[in-house]
Queue: 3 jobs
Job 1
Amino acid sequence: MKIKNILLGLLVSLSIIGCSSDTKPEVNVEPALVVGKSLSSLSLNDQFEKANGIADTTKKVIFVFSDDMGHLCNDYFVTKEASYLSNNNTQFVADISAAPSLIRSMFIMPGLKDFKHPVLILSEKEVSAPYRAKMNTEKAVVVYVSNKEITSIKTISTKEELISTIEAK
């Protein structure tokens, strides 16, 4: 168990070193997270490289763009059963595109495979740019959907907000 904690600490440290929060926003990128837009075309691989789209039953999609918010969410999700997100009609998307590809392939992706909850991955900057555009990337972005169409968007930054958002009916 101690070795796993040491490796997890190393993974976190390397991802922080390898990720820059000073990433400049892409110019002329049309935002994808806008009320009224559809997420029906969103198809991402999960941590096991299985393609996933937004499920018909999904009511909330949580996007995280920073290490801090990713760790806050994942640290909470590991305390829950694997079906916690789907039971609450929620999907989770993590943007790891800012990390260098070597860090992503050697440390981040293997670390994500330890999670029992599904994590959809934004791994390429070109793909993640529309989802980052005009968003506060230091907070988790919660996108509410009905029939895969965005009905509202809010940001959260605490574990308490995360729990109440996910468990709200």
Job 2
Amino acid sequence: MWDYSEKVMDHYRHPRNVGTIEDADAVGTAGSLVCGDQLKIYLKIKDNIVTDAKFQTFGCGSAVASSSILTEMIIGKTIDEVRKITNKDIADELDGLPPEKMHCSVMGYEALEDALKEYKSEGYIPLEEINNEPKEKMICTCFQVTDKVIIDAIKANGLKTVEDVTNYTKAGGACGRCKDAIQKVIDNYYSGVTEQEKISDLTPTQRILKINNIIENQISPELIKDGGDIELVDIKDNDVYVKLRGQCSGCKNSTMTLKLFVESTLKDAFGDEINVIEVK
């Protein structure tokens, strides 16, 4: 049985601000009934301040409590202040949530983000006019969790493992087929890159640092396990020149290692334009 704080139990038994706002200035949703949890939040905004907030949710007690306390947290705050609220802030305001229930606070954060992403003081405008961020990539189709949601959760909560990500976002909690993709997002984040980054968008110094980081922290350790190693020699445009060392240097499968492992790993981080070339 999970250990809930008194605040969680209070907001579950006596939820605040339940309902809808018919003339809401912003509305956001998160979750899916297919997944078992869904939240819809309504905001009334005047002079850049949230004057009212209400919610409707279908989910467990932690989902109700997270939604309830979130509305209390944002009423009276400016839009800029509200945008800074993270799922960790929601959980902290509840005096904590069990790890297995942290996804409920993430759902509140996602709904709030969804409500505000198209909002401006003059009202709704098309999202593409204000959002130049790369398109999000769907990682977990069972729970409809994108790479951005996972990265935000990692960033806000210092998540390190796939299990952590599942607890906070539910990604990987059903069929499990996306666990390798989740691990890749984690690895890319801690290597200092995201899947949206392209080598052509980086300065020469950034290219060297980021590619070398991946080689040293992801690729080299795997090659060392088999008695080999790798060294970054040079980078010219999309071409990455490397030298294989140890047993890898004389291995008859070195070309396969370069293409199927080294190049593939770098492409996952920077895009398909990467080309790895061996220097003898």
Job 3
Amino acid sequence: MTDAHTWCLFYDFVAPPFSKEIADEDLWVPASRERRVDRLVEACHEHEHILLTGEPGVGKTCVLRSLRQRLPEAGFRLTYCHNATLGRRDFYRQLCLALGLSPRATAAAVFYEISQHIHELGAARVHPVFLLDEAHLLHQDVLDHLHILANYGWDSRALLTIVLVGLPELADRLALRRNRSLLSRVHTRVHLGAASPEDTAEYIDYRIRAVCSGTSPFSSDAVAILHEASSGRLRDIDRLATNALRHAAARKVRIVDRSIIGKVIGDHLNDLID
């Protein structure tokens, strides 16, 4: 534990409870999200293309990591691409590198290299899954071409699964007339909403129990205020809950109550104004 995390000692935590550094198998997935993960896993097994949308911080990456955990390595090859602001040629060059291929000089050569690799994986009974994160930022020329990547054997062979992940405006972009060819090939469409108040309470308790054997230092009313302030977005819960624990530990307070949460939220709002 680093000096920056000495506040954890006050609560007998073995690690910061709301850290991003958590193994896939230890991720928290509520029942409502489990059903969505089930849909994604089923879509991959059926070789369908996927659209996954949600507001920032609602847990899209957690769902993707759960998907990665659930898919057997022997039958699937997952490739994750997150630099969505590239033009078409550089986008495919990035994809080549992610696949362990050597990018060629021209866009046509790069696309051919990827296509051949997908065919080879199919022959080996390995299904490639391309996870395209931040897809709402994709250049239009990339969107114009993705449906070609999704089309094999005159659209008669499902040799890969494309997972488009992004903010809700991604669905709006795909609904445009010029993108209808791509959208028509996306049969599985999942939207993640914010966590419910019950989900937030379960999430906080789960993350606390993962780092200590004692009870949660958060009072029930503090959890309710934390949910309201974060609008159920896990990323905001992580930040506000961590700041509250730091604030309480610095004052030698064992219970994080509504007054401490209120102080942390107030400081956050003041920082935004400044």
